[in-house]
Amino acid sequence: xxxxxxxxxxxxxxxxxxxxxxxxxxxxxxxxxxxxxxxxxxxxxxxxxxxxxxxxxxxxxxxxxxxxxxxxxxxxxxxxxxxxxxxxxxxxxxxxxxxxxxxxxxxxxxxxxxxxxxxxxxxxxxxxxxxxxxxxxxxxxxxxxxxxxxxxxxxxxxxxxxxxxxxxxxxxxxxxxxxxxxxxxxxxxxxxxxxxxxxxxxxxxxxxxxxxx
Length: 213
Hints:
Elements: E1 3-7, E2 10-13, E3 19-25, H1 32-51, H2 56-77, H3 88-100, E4 106-113, E5 117-124, H4 136-155, E6 167-170, H5 174-190, E7 203-205
Antiparallel strand pairs: 1-2, 3-5, 3-6, 4-5, 4-7
Protein name: Transposase
InterPro entries: RAYT_transposase (IPR052715), Transposase_17 (IPR002686), Transposase_17_sf (IPR036515)
Domain Transposase IS200-like: 74-187
């Protein structure tokens, strides 16, 4: 188990062997003014939960899910900002960065690469499967660093490519895993980019979950 001050300065647990739903987005895909507004809204809602606690953990979890849903809807509908992953070459770089660690340090269950953000579902190997611990932050640092370097070479620049903060959620059970896998693969359908989940070029699902596709 590793404790990491990771998201909004909250203690964040990353157990080895855990399965995670992660979303990360391009830098500049959300205006700074919108990010600041969301930050203030989140802080107010969290303060209210702390001041009037009823089901503290459940309410915080719900707040996190609502905050994510707001962001994900914005990614799918906002036409401004950066949409570099429309590029076949850059989307392929991101896909390669995810597949690189599959069956080495992590088990890659699924991903969906959109024009300005990426959804992934991964399981970290536990202590019985690897010699050196490889935490979620290690995985995300690797895939972001590699893909940013390669994509910036195409763009002929050295600027920040990814938003530093990512959203991640520890998947609690198999039912939740199936719901999340469906959510990830359905993203381009929901965004009106294709008719069926299987039609999106930049989606992947581990073979044992093919029934979801």
